[in-house]
Model the fold of this input.
Amino acid sequence: MARIKMVAGNWKMNKTLQEGVALAAQLKEDVKNPKCAVVIGTPFIHLATVAEMLKGSPIKVAAENCADKEKGAFTGEVSAEMVKSTGAEYCILGHSERRAYYHEDYEILKNKVELALANGLKVIFCIGEVKEEREAGKQNEVVKAQLEGSVFHLSAEAWKNIVLAYEPVWAIGTGLTATPAQAQDMHAYLRGLVAKQYGAQAAEDTTILYGGSCNEKNAAELFACPDIDGGLIGGAALVAEKFEAIIAAR
Ligand code: PEP
Done:
């Protein structure tokens, strides 16, 4: 995947099926010629309906998770193969809420990433430090360990299907956005790590999104930074006008 600019939404556990369909319908109507790639991450139950609705639209669909097992007796889980069969093209993995509340460690995420890629999904892989780690100046070592633990074992070919999302945990859903300088510093650091692992061209081609209280007011300033290729948007992705304004800012 060449370096593309992207705005991706993460609906989290919001919207009934009917509400999600209504939001997707409005986005389809309004977002016809975006200047960047547009992805919406929806709960599993929306995927098939929304992917079908958005056929022929530039908007792509992502799952917010997938199982770390291929198939079988794992009640309540949804496999990467099932996600792919809905028409979704992406899978968000490593979100800090999954890491914190569902104890997804490096190894679990490594399995999920491998299964998502093996089933033809592109992965939006989230990394980021918590507040205490930022205050202790440990943010670089934290994100490096997250990459080394779950994705840096991938081949150069597989890496082309990875989009990174830097999401400082202290900024998610808190209204506390990283400053453009803080975000740019981290994105440049991440691109440097990718360069060491996969080479300069791969680093140049890697899409790195910023996430964490990115909204229609601060998006343009963040997106103006050279290493910030777009955003992963939570709260503001639930309101069509706000999400569309962020897409327009990219
Ligand atoms: C997210 O959950 O990925 C996120 C960035 O949320 P918010 O935009 O609400 O901070």
